[in-house]
Amino acid sequence: SQTIHQWPATLVQPVGSPLSLECTVEGTSNPNLYWYRQAAGRGLQLLFYSVGIGQISSEVPQNLSASRPQDRQFILSSKKLLLSDSGFYLCAWSLGVTGELFFGEGSRLTVL
Amino acid sequence: GDSVTQMEGPVTLSEEAFLTINCTYTATGYPSLFWYVQYPGEGLQLLLKATKADDKGSNKGFEATYRKETTSFHLEKGSVQVSDSAVYFCALRRSGGGADGLTFGKGTHLIIQP
After folding, report:
1. Cis bond upstream, residue B10 (ω within 30)
2. Burial profile B31-65: b = 16 or more Cβ within 10 angstroms, e = fewer
3. Chain A closest CA to B59's CA: distance in Å?
4. Contacts of B69 (CB under 8 A, 6+ apart)
5. Cβ distance of A99 and B32 shorter than 8 Å
6. Structural Rg of chain A based on CA atoms
């Protein structure tokens, strides 16, 4: 069966420090991959999606970037964090362009 | 563009009460519709789905019917439990699919009191 893992689960970082969140999917090939952000008390905002290795689409201009170095690995990065980057980050995958998304456990980032 | 509208709450009910969480959408054609549940500190779990008009999705006592004429996908449960306390998200994937995933509502915070 397919599984998705994100790490770290919790992260506290100072303003201006770098960020790397990782997401790995197991048990499937060539998934579509997604990064969402959920700010406190708000809904989900799509940040990036990827349909294949090295292919990244950005939905919102911001302080973050994403990379897909391997078929089932998706990384969210920042060179210098801002206070406004705080939130709950969710990785997800789907097969093809129809059907549901499957989410990871989430990574809570607090920028101080 | 596509959009999903749902009551944000919090919605507070007593245990064993009847639950309805309204969800309406704006989209062309026949999108696929979903309900997700998020327990505190966790990711989203798919609760149920419907892919065409008049389909009824059901799971764990929850039901929702895809109503094309009213562009709605309301979530219902006959008798809620304290363990149902969570945030519920309505979502759609546009007709024909799309690499950019799902469009979500803002979520409804449900609190069930014993």
Report:
1. yes
2. bbbbbbbbeeebbbebbbbbbeeeeebeeeebbbb
3. 15
4. none
5. yes
6. 13
Q: Which residue has the tokens 């069966």?
A: A1
Per-residue pLDDT at A41 exceeds 80: no
Cβ neighbour number for residue A93 with a 10 Å cutoff = 23
Q: How many CB atoms lie within 10 A of CB B12?
A: 12
Give the pair of three-digit tokens for residue B49.
Answer: 């789905």
The reply to whether residue B99 touches residue A32, judged by beta carbons under 8 angstroms, is yes
The tokens for A67 are 């990379």
Cβ within 8 Å, pair A97-B98: yes
Centre a 10 Å sphere on the Cβ of residue B82 and count the other Cβ atoms it contains. Answer: 11
pLDDT for A99: 84
Amino acid at B18: F
End-to-end CA distance of chain A: 39
> Which SS3 state, helix, strand or coil, does residue A12 take?
strand
Residue type, B52: K
At A68, give phi and psi (nearest 5°): -135, 85
pLDDT of A87-109, one tens digit each?
Answer: 999 999 998 877 899 999 999 99
Q: How many CB atoms lie within 10 A of CB A104?
A: 25
